[in-house]
Design brief:
single chain; Rossmann fold; four-stranded parallel sheet; three-stranded mixed sheet; 17% strand; binds NADP nicotinamide-adenine-dinucleotide phosphate
């Protein structure tokens, strides 16, 4: 999802970009498994990049909970492999992390100065990736995203799941009101990141759209943008979806971009505005 926004954004800025993925789905990608240290090293040594952006991850939270070894092999050791090579070659590195590193108990938005204390395997493994990045790469940007919105045809997260239900003709959609987060539009993220990496301000950043909401709020906005007043949105709590999504989610994944704001680099829009643009661009004509 994020790669499909970063690739065109950096190309447009005139950079030569080499994009890799575990299962390449487009002509502009080649295959690379970040769990394979030798392959990661070969790829980086051959391309000689000025900057490495490491987005690869196991993002299925429920699978991470069921298969912690797989989660750590990909999210922790995969990141260590990339970081070791970046450290050795004295390269700058971007690592994309997540709001899932927090325990979710805070009632105001998490800043970069709050302690990360994950309560799920996905968050644990992504935090381990942050630690490896810090340990091996002096010139790093660790950038935490929130609920990702983007990807168009490749979208496999919340917006796509709601759109799927609309396409299937559902007249009632159930959404939880007890989980809070900050949507993060991949296009805004790519633009903001492209500016950040041109600065010498290495370190940890939150990069989410402005504002916050529940899953219910996001679904309500989707229906509103698509003009689907015929669909009823039913408010439920997380127990309703427990069988399908068994991993516990932190109550709050709301973050604010304190570091970007203080550096004058916050270009993230309010999430409702960004979501409306995304829906217009990819889904409005077909629903
Ligand atoms: N999605 C979110 O809501 C969210 C929120 C916060 C942060 N993030 C972070 O943002 C980054 C980008 O995620 P995304 O949202 O763009 O999700 P995504 O579409 O699931 O992208 C992750 C990509 O990593 C690939 N991958 C998995 N294992 C790999 C391996 N061993 N080697 C190489 N590639 C591998 C996946 O390939 P397959 O599809 O073939 O498995 C997938 O293409 C990740 O670091 C994620 O942790 C995501």
């Amino acid at each position: 999802m994020l790669g499909s926004a970063l690739y065109p954004c950096f190309k447009k800025l005139g950079h030569a970009v080499r994009a890799t993925d575990l299962t390449p789905r487009d002509k502009w990608q080649t295959m690379l498994d970040v769990r394979d240290y030798a392959a990661v090293r070969r790829e980086i040594v051959k391309f000689k990049p000025h900057l490495v952006m490491h987005l690869a991850a196991e993002t299925d939270v429920d699978r991470c909970e069921r298969e912690p070894d797989h989660a750590f092999a990909t999210n922790a050791l995969g990141t260590q492999n990339v970081a070791l090579v970046c450290g050795e070659r004295e390269l700058r590195m971007v690592y994309i992390s997540t709001a899932g590193v927090f325990d979710g108990k805070k009632t105001s938005p998490y800043t970069e100065f709050d302690e990360a204390r994950p309560v799920i395997v996905y968050g644990d493994s992504k935090l381990a990736g942050e630690l490896f990045t810090r340990q091996h790469v002096p010139r790093h940007f660790i950038v935490r995203a929130g609920w990702m919105i983007g990807g168009g045809q490749k979208d496999h997260k919340f917006v796509a799941k709601i759109v799927e239900q609309i396409r299937a003709g559902k007249k009632r959609i159930h959404c939880v009101t007890d989980k809070f987060g900050t949507p993060t539009y991949t296009e805004d993220f790519a633009r903001t990141l492209s500016e950040l990496v041109e600065t010498p301000f290495y370190g940890l950043y939150h990069m989410v759209c402005e504002g916050a909401g529940t899953r219910y709020d996001v679904a309500a906005e989707i229906l509103k943008c698509l003009g689907r007043t015929d669909i009823e949105l039913v408010a439920v709590n997380s127990d309703f979806w427990k069988a399908k999504y068994p991993a516990p989610r932190p109550r709050s994944e709301v973050m604010e971009n304190m570091m970007l704001r203080l550096r004058g680099l916050n270009r993230m829009r309010p999430w409702r505005e960004a979501l409306a643009e995304y829906l217009r661009r990819f889904f409005a004509s077909e629903i």
